[in-house]
Amino acid sequence: MTETTPQQEHAKPSEKKSEKKELSQKGERHWYAVHTYSGYEDAVARYLKQRVDSLEMDNKIFNVVVPKEKSIKIKNGKRKEVEEKIYPGYVLVDMIMSEDSWYVVRNTPRVTGFVGSDSTEPTPLSKEEVDFLLARMDGVEKKVKLDYILGETVKITDGPFKDYEGKISDIDHEHMKIKVLVPIFGRETAVELDSLQLQKI
């Protein structure tokens, strides 16, 4: 995080003053995207919430969210629900942009800056962007991720072709089906199987 030193604060008073004036005129509540060091999103959200409480900024900073979505991952025939970040390296902040709220967020450890046209005028997210993200976070549509890749050799663990080995020729994440090329009578035949019928070798 790049913090402003006392020397830098007094280096360009006119520039600093105009920046603060510009921010204080915003006055409207919006969601903003804040860039963080990758891997520190949850820590930044925690730090920022603590700062909001200790500095009594809950009248200007209302919510801090790390955008995540739940998905179902299939691995070795087992379904596992995992939570993954939608946008690694970003935290969303619901706030009224002003001189003091900008300062609180910008000077939170591991924050590198607001997303926007420049550092003095962060750009709020559009309503469509926010609605889309919140819908994904609410799990309106849970994504299914099959832990297989095309061309990978797998073993069939259930069904008529149990114990056969074959190569994956197609993966249908939506319906959780996988086509495997199985050697039958000396030639490869595509067989569609449920992902739970397969095992990695």
TrEMBL record:
Comp. bias regions, Basic and acidic residues: 9-27
Pfam family, one: KOW
Region of interest: Disordered: 1-27
Positions of transmembrane segments: none
InterPro entries: KOW, NGN, NGN-like_dom, NGN_dom_sf, NusG-like, Rib_uL2_dom2, Transcrpt_antiterm_NusG, Translation_prot_SH3-like_sf
Key words of the record: Transcription, Transcription antitermination, Transcription regulation, Transcription termination
Family: Belongs to the NusG family.
Function: Participates in transcription elongation, termination and antitermination.
Residue stretches making up the KOW domain: 147-174
Gene name tied to this protein: nusG
Xref: SMART domains: KOW (SM00739), NGN (SM00738)
Domain of life, per lineage: Bacteria
Domain NusG-like N-terminal: 28-137
UniProt-recorded name of the protein: Transcription termination/antitermination protein NusG
GO terms under cellular component: cytosol
A GO BP annotation: DNA-templated transcription elongation
Gene3D superfamilies named in the record: 2.30.30.30, NusG, N-terminal domain
